[in-house]
Design a protein that fits this description.
With 200 residues, the chain is an alpha/beta fold. The chain has eight helices and eight strands. Strand 2, helix 2 and strand 3 form a beta-alpha-beta unit.
Amino acid sequence: MVKVLIATLYSHEPVVLATTRLGPQRLILLVDKEPSKEQEKSLKIIQDSLGKVIDVKVVKTEVYDIVAVAQKAVEIIDIQPNDDAIYINITSGRKTKAIGLLFAAYARHDRVKKIAYNPEEDKSAVVYLPRLSFKLTESEKKILEKLSSKKRYDNIMDLAKDVDLSTAMLYRAIDELKDKDMVTTEHGVELTDAGKIARL
């Protein structure tokens, strides 16, 4: 079993601390598409030190598009061998990037062992976050899948023509998805960002 640490990066200290504690064989860092000087400096420190003893990979992502970050992080998780133990650290980097990585961990709940955050106030502390799951029913999955297609649905009855569900089940599932903030019906039936992430 290989330990894999996927982490956001801005300052190198939290990443070095997490790597030292966990002892992964592979470190995957999410950096900005156009890294700042601070990010580049941190990356060089990590590659010059940790890169000599473990496999360090860099993946460039969006900064403020949480859905795009989550999608890229899900792709990273999905290509890791099934036997690998995946750990997530969201300490360093922009909050939007950390949230995207956190949502990816929720979308791949069954693949992620732990999600960690290291508070700045106490360098020795580690806060383990809950490994939540989107827990969708089959009906909800069908609806999200249909809504992710390019076709526009003006109302629920419009969607009913394309989804193989009874009208009662469809309305109940839509209500559940609205309650989870995955679907909106304000301007037709549409996925929210949470809905886009949940179906990854």
